[in-house]
């Protein structure tokens, strides 16, 4: 399956608990961390929820 790289570009400070939990679920919890995940509908939904704090690249 295709892989995507997700880089955290925004801070989770002053964000809701569910957005923070979504970042942790994506393997991100600090600025400028990069996580490589499979491109599934579930992961795309999580990315959409925190799209203002992440940057997505096709791997």
Describe the structure.
The protein has 59 residues and is of the alpha+beta class. Helices cover 31% and strands 27% of the residues. The longest helix has 9 residues, at 17-25.
* Estimated helix fraction: 25-40%
Mean pLDDT: 96
Radius of gyration: 10 Å
> Major sheet: order of its strands?
2-1-3
- Choose one word for the global shape: globular
Order of helices and strands: EHEHE
| Low confidence ranges | none
How much beta, percentage-wise? 25-35%
How many helical stretches?
A: 2
Cα distance spanning the termini: 11 Å
Descriptive key words:
59 residues; 27% strand
Write the layout of secondary structure elements.
Elements: E1 3-8, H1 17-25, E2 34-38, H2 41-49, E3 54-58
Antiparallel strand pairs: 1-2, 1-3
Task: Write a short abstract of this structure.
The protein has 59 residues and is α+β, with helices and mostly antiparallel strands.
């Amino acid at each position: 399956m295709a892989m995507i790289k997700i880089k955290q570009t925004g801070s989770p400070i002053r964000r809701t608990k569910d957005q923070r939990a979504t970042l942790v679920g994506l393997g991100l919890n600090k600025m400028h961390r990069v996580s490589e995940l499979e491109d599934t509908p579930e992961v795309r939904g999580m990315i959409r929820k925190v799209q203002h704090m992440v940057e997505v690249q096709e791997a």
